[in-house]
Amino acid sequence: MSNEHPHPDHHPNEHHHPHEHRILNPATEEVIATVPATTPDEVAAAVARATGAQRGWAALAPADRARLLRRFAAAVDGHIEELAALEVREAGHPIGNARWEAGNVRDLLDYAAGGAERLSGAQIPVAGGLNVTFHEPLGVVAVIAPWNFPMPIAAWGTAPALAAGNAVILKPAETTPLTALRLAELALEAGLPEGLFQVLPGAGPVAGAALVEHPGVAKVVFTGSTAVGKEIMAKCAAGVKRVTLELGGKSPNIVFADADLERAAAAAPGSFLDNTGQDCCARSRILVQASVYDRFMELLAPAVTSFAVGDPADPATAMGPLISAAQRERVRSYVPEDAPAAIRGEAPKGKGFWYPATVLEATGPGDRAAVEEIFGPVAVVLPFEDEADAVRLANATDYGLSGSIWTRDVGRAVRVSRAVAAGNLSVNSHGSVRYATPFGGYKQSGLGRELGPDALAAFTETKNVFISTEISTEEQ
Ligand code: NAI
Ligand code: MG
Asked: Origin, by domain of life (predicted)?
């Protein structure tokens, strides 16, 4: 951060990949910090340190690893307000959301800590001996995190990887490194060994790419765009590196005529406006049964326009700005100024990357706004005729991350949940991400699963050992 890292002033930000990143408050456009950009040589040095630290960490008793991770969780718990305030300033998240996010990091560490002592293998019956399996750590894991949920997503990979005995190098997004850097300090204060959890801020194509290509990195956990995810997967193939990908989404919110329409309409805004729509699980395609379409839209309009937009530091705020000017341009490209929006909310004028809540009526299922991830507070509404039509529309995308189904018919809820090709579905709810349940995408939304009871397994190799019980010749 600017106060701690003196930086030479002969590096104007004219380079494509600057030697430092200016961190802006997206609500005010003020520069709040300057963070050095890690070079490929510094990445290599960090991998060497991590490799050394990992050996000692894996050799610790499982109970000691668990205890240190619980201390890390306690350190995070003691700094919830500080971490939340940083998230408000660098990411523009409403303070209520930011507090939840910091608490989520604590919970992820606590949950993973319990796994360190429960990483049991199997004893498999075979002839002539004892067969057992061990879940061994991979070594050094790289976590490349995005800016939309900087703290939780960093911890999704980091907490279980550490618990399973790995070292972690986290590369936060260019725009949001501050909470990650603070978490690394808290880890050291909590007693985690030096080098075990390192945070390297920097440019994706420089520091991120150097991590992905480094032979000392055994696994890459990436959350971000599908385009970069594909590139990372291809690079990992060269070294047969393990990879987990959490990519984009275009998730459906399917509202059947038999649903509690009032409840469905009241809940819909949060499902695509929370985090200003910068959420891989955003329910940005609202599919409504034609017979209740008009009624649903009447109920949806006041729910959208009353979603409180404004100063992220105000506890009453539900929606802040977008992360950056670039992201606002991206969002704008889907909604031309003269687009006939069905519903449009308000947004503050002046400084800050504000964008109003917007609901578009799709011109057709092939409409760009109806098929591409917008990652802003914009949803598209489409009518459907019957259950088969709803499922067909829901699946008419290369993505398959999340989705919601609103109906009072239990059988339909189960049928549609099974028919929609997505990793995380919710019925009469939009909640589908919990640290105790598995999370991940179908199709081009990703590869592998994070969170849940099996999270640690993704950071281990299974080793099978057969021990002969044959009587030795001397004893015969
Ligand atoms: P991005 O995929 O470029 O960035 C995500 C992370 O990857 C950042 O830490 C970035 O520094 C890193 N990165 C970028 N290029 C890299 C490379 N060549 N090698 C290694 N690491 C690299 O995403 P971006 O450009 O910030 O956002 C563009 C769009 O991607 C968004 O509008 C949204 O649609 C999608 N996205 C989806 C996310 C999700 O949660 N699934 C998160 C962020 C973005
Ligand atoms: Mg990018």
From this structure: Bacteria
> How many angstroms separate the CA atoms of 217 and 200, rounded?
14
pLDDT in tens, 213-226: 999 999 999 999 99
Q: Are residues 149 and 216 in the same domain?
A: yes
CB atoms within 10 A of CB 379: 28
List pLDDT tens digits, range 213-268: 999 999 999 999 999 999 999 999 999 999 999 999 999 999 999 999 999 999 99
Please tell me whether residues 239 and 317 are part of one structural domain. no
Range of the domain at 103: 20-247+445-463
Residue 9 included in any domain:
no
Instruction: Report the CATH number at residue 175.
Output: 3.40.605.10
- Strand 341-344 and strand 358-361: pairing? antiparallel
Alpha-carbon dihedral 323, 328, 329, 331, rounded to 10 degrees: 120
From residue 167, alpha-carbon distances to 52, 116, 196, 198, 372 in Å are 9, 14, 5, 8, 36
53 and 152 part of one domain:
yes
Residue 2 lies in a domain: no
Mention every residue, 6+ apart, whose C-beta is less than 8 A from residue 81. Answer: 99
How far, in Å, is the centroid of ligand 2 from the Cα of 201? Answer: 15
Catalytic residue positions, numbered: 246
Ligand 1 close to Cβ of residue 244 (< 6 A): no
Question: Cα 365–321–358 angle (5° rounding)?
Answer: 30
Which ligand is nearest the CA of 221, by number? 1
Task: Give yes or no for a contact between 187 and 196, defined as CB atoms under 8 angstroms apart.
Answer: yes
CA of 412 to the centre of ligand 2 (A): 39
If you ran DSSP here, which 8-state letter would residue 193 be given? P
Let me know whether 268 and 351 are in one domain.
yes
What is the rounded distance in angstroms from the CA atom of residue 209 to the CA atom of residue 102?
Answer: 28
Shared-domain flag, residues 334 and 264 = yes
Structural domain includes residue 455: yes
For the chain, the domain total comes to 2
* Strands laid side by side in the 129-137 sheet: 123-124, 129-137, 460-468
Ligand that comes closest to the CA of residue 145: 1
Question: What was the pLDDT predicted at 365?
Answer: 65
Same domain, 233 and 310: no
